[in-house]
Hints:
- By secondary structure, the chain is mainly α.
- The chain has one domain (46-294).
- The protein is built from 11 helices and 2 strands.
- The chain has helices spanning 3-39, 49-57, 66-74, 80-88, 98-122, 129-156, 172-185, 191-203, 208-216, 221-246, 261-275; strands at 248-250, 253-255.
- A two-stranded antiparallel sheet has the order 1-2.
- Strand 1 (248-250) and strand 2 form a beta hairpin.
- Helix 2 (49-57) crosses helix 6, helix 5 packs antiparallel against helix 6 (129-156) and helix 6 runs parallel beside helix 11 (261-275).
Amino acid sequence: MNKFEMKNVIENTGNEVKKAVSKGKDIVFDSNDKVFDALDINKDGRVDTEDIIILGLRIPGVHIDREEFLRKQFMKNYANDVVQDAVKFNPAHAGITVEEIDNIADQVIQYERNCVSGISLALGAPGGAAMFATLPTDIAQYYGYMLRAIQKLLYLYGFPEINVENGVNIDDETMNLITLCLGVMYGVEGSVASIKILSNALGKGVEKKLLQKALTKGTFYPIVKKISRWFGVYMTKQVFAGFFRKAIPVVGGVVGGGITYLSFKPCCDNLKKSLQDTALCNPSSRKSFDEFDVIDA
Length: 297
């Protein structure tokens, strides 16, 4: 092969590489749009907490029956009357120690985290464009496990049953409560204070209708909207751009930079910490909570 022929081969190869790269970019951009459309459940042109919550709750097994869950956790170590009290009121009211509740909460987080590990590896298993096709389902499953953890932690730390059974018609109160929990998990400013105020208010017997109004129209509503906006930006930047840039090869698949086994536990730990030492789960808490005054009518 002379110099002229070699030059032509190099130029032709370079052109083919450029075409392949360009085609690959087109596939990625087109696939990104399809993923976005699949996740935009309410079709408002953005992916936010409402989309993720609805998507996650539609997955079979995500709904946690409060009574069944609490009975399963306590029936082995406590008398029936204690279990009945925990179901009727809450574990703290039944005399179950904060230490025991914390221990079960850790087990819950670890269990759900182990379930997530399978998704983390499966995210990249197909490879190429096929990865994009499976991504909406993988994201839904990931947040499905996160929603399972939210429900379990809320019930352990004293919250009443929340209406999440069908994942289709979710009332505003439930949607906003779960949104607050997601805000706590991801460290959105104002969310921790809000969930603590809500928990303490429930523990002090603040009227349920007043709390419902605070969640949907009053005190907590601006925080809920803030979390939803933040989450929309997070989903766009971290899940779409961040995940595909930061995918790390491991044995059997890849672990995404934005949605991983490693990120699940810190999120759940954040929620657990925010629910601890409040009037709802620890009646002997000595902290002074004057925040109830901000729950307006």
